[in-house]
Specification:
By secondary structure, this protein is α+β, with helices and mostly antiparallel strands. It contains three helices and six strands; from the N terminus they run E-H-E-H-E-E-E-E-H. The model has no long low-confidence stretch (mean pLDDT 89).
Length: 102
């Protein structure tokens, strides 16, 4: 079973991808070493640091009915210099790289 569940694609996280900082939702039993090993296995990148944040449950209401958002766990992953995960680039970033290469 995979430790990394999904990437977090917010405005703040996408802006930090230029600096090599990626944010992922991870499983509740994930450790820093298991996250680092999985990134090395699937994406062939080296991690400098892994920070894990446990987010508490949040009370929400939907159409005036009370509810609760589940507990989440996020990992902030800093990659080594000049490394990136393929498929996580914005179209604008791809165009800038093409222009720099000319």
């Amino acid at each position: 079973m995979s430790v990394i569940i999904s990437p977090v694609m917010t405005e703040k996280s996408v802006l930090n991808m230029d600096n090599g900082l990626y944010v992922f939702n991870v499983a509740k039993d994930a450790t820093k070493t298991s996250i680092s090993d999985e990134l090395k296995k699937f994406y062939n990148v080296d991690t400098v640091s892994v920070r894990i944040v446990n987010l508490p449950a949040k009370k929400v209401s939907f159409r005036r009915k009370p509810g609760q958002r589940s507990i989440r766990r996020k990992a902030y992953i800093q990659l080594a210099a000049k490394q990136h995960i393929p498929g996580f680039e914005l179209p604008k970033q791809k165009e800038d790289k093409k222009e720099k290469g000319k």
